[in-house]
Amino acid sequence: MSRTRTILGVAAASAAVLALAACSSGDSGSGSGEASGAADDYGLVSDGTLTVATEGTYRPFSFHEDGSGELVGYDVEIAEAVADKLGLEVEFQETQWDAIFAGLDAGRFDVIGNQVSITPEREEQYLFSEPYTVSRGVIVVNEGDSSISSFDDLDGKTTAQSLTSNWYELATESGAKVEAVEGWAQAVALLEQGRVDATINDELTFLDYLTTTPDAPIEVAAETDETSESAFAFTKDKEALVEAVDEALAELRDEGVLAEIGEKYFGADVSQ
């Protein structure tokens, strides 16, 4: 998949660290030590604060915790960790998906952190950080079913799919008969009842389901070669901020923080 990846060089990184240290006027993040005095270089909406757009209704990526009502999730924690590395505060602006890119274009926030998939069309209009989520499409079958081990094996089988999803197209291209459903919950119910042979969906959806239903008698039979990658999205004038975020993500990956957050929400490292 085509994607934009801007990585700060060693020399540039050293210079940036020195410059940020010189600008520091107080507290800095506990990670790389970069200081909030660099906010002017990033063109932030609010000095010293990384303003992140997210839905707040997209479990397990961005949602409100039952009971406390606190905004939590995989994307939320990744954004918080990045801001900490940059020595910045973080503020989340909860925005409906249909309006999220318009808000970014209007300068209401610095970045979108809401599982934005990197696509060639979006790359024409926006800058992207390094991916922090990598996923594949998977065929999910009942545990112990050895009749399906590849997409070719779906020929003549019945799968449960939403008719508006890309997975519906993949199922029909593979020769499967499709039982129409509204979403994952209905698909997995039909699968466990033995009314369909399989369902195709995103690997993250499957992993998330297992975290809440660990005894579910289902398993992955095959996965796509092609991956879907999600990253932070920025307007085209935010090159310096993208570089800084990429550096922060690289450090968080090396330190195992991205893997730890993935394990918390999916039971696996989904960052690479």
TrEMBL record:
<feature type="signal peptide">
    <location>
        <begin position="1"/>
        <end position="21"/>
    </location>
</feature>
<feature type="domain" description="Solute-binding protein family 3/N-terminal">
    <location>
        <begin position="49"/>
        <end position="269"/>
    </location>
</feature>
<dbReference type="InterPro" id="IPR018313">
    <property type="entry name" value="SBP_3_CS"/>
</dbReference>
<comment type="similarity">
    <text>Belongs to the bacterial solute-binding protein 3 family.</text>
</comment>
<dbReference type="GO" id="GO:0030313">
    <property type="term" value="C:cell envelope"/>
</dbReference>
<dbReference type="Pfam" id="PF00497">
    <property type="entry name" value="SBP_bac_3"/>
</dbReference>
<protein>
    <submittedName>
        <fullName>Amino acid ABC transporter substrate-binding protein, PAAT family</fullName>
    </submittedName>
</protein>
<keyword id="KW-0732">Signal</keyword>
<dbReference type="InterPro" id="IPR001638">
    <property type="entry name" value="Solute-binding_3/MltF_N"/>
</dbReference>
